[in-house]
Amino acid sequence: MSYLTMIDRDAAPRAIIFDMDGLLLDTEVLYTRVQEQITAEHGGKPFTMQLKSKMMGQKALDAAKLFVTELGLQDKLTPEAFVAAREVLLDEMFERETALMPGAEALLCRLHESGFPIALATSSHRRHYVLKTSRHRALFDRVFGDRVVTGDEVSRGKPDKMIFERAAGLLDVPLEDCVVFEDAVSGVEAAKRGGAVAVMIPDPAFDRDEYTSGADFVWRSLDEVDLPALGISLS
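and the corresponding C-alpha cells:
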C-alpha cells in the first residue's frame, strides 16, 4: 500500500506522537478474543470487525457502551459490567502474551538514537499501560521516558484531539507541528482535528478505503514507514 502525497507545509514536522494498541503492541487480537467470548457467553449478536473498528481508540466506557448497544445486550450486561469482565480476562493475557508489532522496536530505537522527539498517547488507562508494556519495559522506558499520556489523564477520548494535544505539550511542540501514528479511525480523526499529519497503519482486517481515507499516509506496517516522505530527516 502506498502513502499519499505529503500535505504542503511551511516546515518539516518537529515531533512524532505514537498510539500504542494495535500499532506498537499486538494487543488488538487479545481484545477481539475476549470480546468474542463475552458476547457468546451472554447470547449477544456476533462480534464483528465493523463494531471493533468503531470501538478502537475510544475510552473504555465509551467503547463498552457501543459494544452493549450494538450487540443487543442492554438487558443482560451494563457497560460497566462489560468493562469489569473484560479486564479480568485481559489482565493475565497482557502480562503473558503482549508482543511488539513488526517494525516497532526498530523504528522507535532509530528515532530515539537520533534524538528526534517522540511521545506516546494511548487510550489505555495507566494500569493497563503498565501491564501491556511489562514484557517490553526497558524499551518503552528508554524511548519514551515520562512522555506518555494515558486515557485516564484526559477527560475526552478520541476522536477528540485532547490526548494528542497533551502529548504534544510534553514535547513543547504544537500539535500541528507533529506527525501522529495511528491504527484506528478515531485516532486519525483526532490527529486531523488537531492539525497534525496522520499516518495510519491499519489492521489488515480493516484494510479498505473506508477505514484509511482520512489519513495523510497509509502503510501496511511500521517496517514500511518512509520518514523522508514525512519530511523527517534523521542525522
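(Above: one complete record from the training split.) The longest helix spans residues 79-97.
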